[in-house]
Amino acid sequence: MPHPRNPQTFRVKSFGCQMNVYDGERMGELLAAQGMRAASEGEDADLVVLNTCHIRERASEKVYSDIGRLRRDDDTAPMIAVAGCVAQAEGEEIMTRAPSVSMVVGPQAYHRLPGMIEEAARGRRSTDTDMPANTKFEALPERRRAGASAFLTVQEGCDKFCTYCVVPYTRGAEISRPFSDLLREAEKLAENGAREITLLGQNVNAWTGATSSGRSLGFDDLIRELDKLPKLKRIRYTTSHPNDVTEGLIRAHGEVEKLMPFLHLPVQSGSDRVLKAMNRSHTADSYLRVIERFREARPDIAISGDFIVGFPGETDADFEDTLRLIDTVGYAQAFSFKYSPRPGTPAATMERQVPRELMDERLQRLQAALNRDQLAFNQASVGRRCEVLVERRGKKPGQWLGKSPWLQSVFFEGEAAIGDMVSVDLAEAGANSVRGLLLEPVGA
Ligand code: SAM
Ligand code: SF4
Q1: Ligand 2 neighbourhood includes 171 CB (under 6 angstroms)
Q2: What is the pLDDT of residue 5?
Q3: Quick one: which atom of ligand 2 is closest to the CA of 166?
Q4: Mean of the pLDDT values across residues 65-87?
Q5: N or C: which terminal CB in the chain sees fewer CB atoms within 10 Å?
Q6: For residue range 112-125, what is the model confidence (pLDDT) as tens digits?
Q7: Which atom of ligand 1 is nearest the CA belonging to 336?
């Protein structure tokens, strides 16, 4: 039902990847710049933005249950905006299926939210799923706030067309944001308190740009330029594609101190046959060689990955190949998923779809192997002294939580504040976190 009321407060609920978290923050800043206020914890918001994820069926379906929960047949119902990748892929369907939704806005068009809200307040519903490259960023207000660790989207979209994946359709073609814009945004984030910036992109290491004098820059040059910002202490990036890894990026891991020893490099499968059917354009071996080169440049680098089990046609032998690859790499952490057929992608109509029970069983075995390695990585780090960036308070009084250079969650007790870089001795390892003993603070 269209919503004839100007919203004063808003809430943005982001699902899915870190790029959505970044978009959600930018939407919040945009709405705040229009004079709206973020609803506080527990307060009903006048406008709710559901910033959705379309990567797997489960994620995609969440939007409809959320819309159902927000629906009310009186004037206390919030105005609802659906943003993100489900909006892009299923905009029309949402408008038909959910009359309580006032607007649908795609990931490249959310800078137009204020106009759409005005329309909605006049009782008119609207959809905007245009994909104008980079205009969104130009139209957004400057960054205002930043936590100790901040995201910065440097690259969007994807041209790789893995056969299972919706990203090339929902996020559009690969584009790099201009270098000068990124530098300005990074400076602003650091000024506002960010000590760590994670550079984001679906294929972040495919970023290219140029300086004002026309010198071309690769992703490693971007890292080296950001390294010069004095207030910034740490640089991370995600997600990389094995085929876009350059010698320069590998070298940067050995040379740029602020570049953290952590690499998220999805492989998806350890079977060349499956990788080919996935259109991944790398083999298990070429992937392992890339990892080796990173380890030569930075021996302590922590490796993370993504896996899909049950891709159409995956046999027991293919799955065993994946387990072998896991044994070879020794992941510090990883994400793993059951294959989810996505409408419109080539894999959705491939023959020999794997039965659900078999997928469940394979996922369990895969995750057992990954959990074992994650615990082993954490245990091997006990006894190390390292810096931790303090991100928030822990559950217990006097307890703090932060990240080690290897992206482990570290908790410790003592005098600290959010944004501090503190030295700790890693003392005790769990599967998901490590207990640290605080040494002296080394300055914010
Ligand atoms: N661009 C990145 C890459 O190539 O790794 C990340 C893409 S996606 C947002 C994150 C992960 O979701 C992928 O690496 C893949 O493991 C998983 N994924 C994507 N499509 C999927 C599907 N249809 N079913 C299950 N998992 C999927
Ligand atoms: Fe999807 Fe493949 Fe592109 Fe990653 S590289 S976003 S998995 S199509």
Answers
A1: no
A2: 74
A3: 1
A4: 89
A5: N
A6: 999 999 999 999 99
A7: 16
Catalogue the long-range contacts made by 276-282 (C-beta closer than 8 Å, 24 or more residues apart).
Answer: 277/163, 277/311, 277/312, 277/313, 277/347, 277/350, 278/162, 278/163, 278/164, 278/308, 278/311, 278/347, 279/160, 279/161, 279/162, 279/163, 279/346, 280/162, 280/242, 281/160, 281/243, 282/242, 282/243
pTM (two decimals): 0.93
Both tokens assigned to 311: 């891709």
CA proximity to 335, closest of 310, 308, 314 = 308
In percent, the amount of the chain with pLDDT more than 70 equals 98
Q: Among all chains, which residue has been given the structure tokens 């960036």?
A: 389
Quote the ligand 2 centre to 75 CA distance (angstroms). 42
Of all ligands present, the nearest one to the C-alpha of 158 is 2
Distance CA 399, CA 413 (A): 4
Mean pLDDT of the chain: 94
For residue 101, what are the CA distances in angstroms to 9, 62, 82, 104, 135? 17, 15, 7, 8, 25
